[in-house]
Specification:
Blueprint: H1 4-16, H2 24-34, H3 42-45, H4 51-57, H5 71-82, E1 93-98, H6 101-110, H7 116-119, E2 122-129, H8 130-163, E3 167-168, H9 176-183, E4 189-198, H10 212-215
Helix pairs in contact: 1-2, 5-8, 6-9
Bound molecules: flavin mononucleotide.
Flavin mononucleotide binds at residues 59-60, 62, 114, 169-173, 207.
């Protein structure tokens, strides 16, 4: 196919210049646009950078440029959340998109004064609809699966933001009651993560990780 070769070149570009600004998706989009090549099938869009490289490239970003996010990018982030796995496919995730300065300021207040939340042009608040999960799974659904489902959606958002060349962070330190009040969340909708997203102002260094040997156990816990 005519776009096979450009994709191979882009794999090479992404691998060689892993610190290039913009994610693999953006590089691909620009490449196809600049060369007047029809944008390829959606299935190709996310496979240009290896999944592991993308996972390793993602960083928690705490400083953002004021530039607004494109609507297309927000849609892509929501699409990523939509395709997260969920227990029994109950899809209990609800997302509040916060863009107004006044609402962002209130979220800073609810999140122990973490000022960078207000710096980001868009903040996604990922919530769990507890009743959707408890309707099938009872207490395990509302106390565990709904939370896990919201976590999976949050991680999908963070990784997709990275692929789009955007900075993001998972903020979990906040007063749930205050966030509930600010966002007017009805009862049974629990806020799980606040995710500010925007262009990062600086590169950040990866904090160290535990060695694989340190957290893996063979056959039973404690056996190396
Ligand atoms: C559940 C959860 C809650 C977190 N809450 C906060 C937070 O409130 N504020 C913050 O600055 N970072 C928060 N983080 C980001 C972590 O500090 C960060 O993921 C960790 O230091 C590793 O850095 P990295 O994300 O760049 O790999 C949170 C991360 C997770 C997964």
């Amino acid at each position: 196919m005519s776009f096979t070769r450009p994709i191979i070149s882009l794999v090479a570009i992404s691998t060689k210049h892993s610190n290039i600004k913009g994610g693999s998706w953006k590089i691909a989009k620009d490449f196809f646009n600049n060369n007047s090549i029809d944008y390829p099938l959606a299935g190709f869009q996310g496979v240009i950078m290896s999944i592991l490289s993308l996972i390793q490239k993602r960083r928690s970003i705490r400083s953002f440029e004021p530039t607004s996010l494109q609507d297309d990018d927000i849609k892509t982030l929501l699409e990523a959340a939509r395709w997260a796995p969920s227990a029994g496919n109950k899809q209990p995730v609800e997302i509040v998109i916060v863009k107004s300065e006044s609402q962002k300021r209130k979220l800073v207040g609810a999140a122990l004064g973490q000022e960078f939340i207000a710096m980001a042009p868009t903040v996604l608040v990922v919530c769990a609809n507890l009743e959707r999960s408890s309707s099938r799974y009872g207490t395990r659904g509302s106390s565990l699966y709904a939370i896990q489902d919201a976590a999976a959606a949050t991680q999908n958002i963070l990784l997709t933001a990275t692929d789009l060349g955007l900075g993001s962070i998972w903020v979990g330190a906040f007063d749930e009651e205050k966030v509930t009040e600010v966002l007017k969340l009805p009862s049974g909708i629990r806020p799980l993560s606040i995710v500010p997203i925007g262009m990062s102002t600086k590169e950040s260094i990866a904090p160290p990780r535990r060695a694989i040997d340190e957290f893996t156990h063979n056959d039973y816990f404690g056996k190396s």
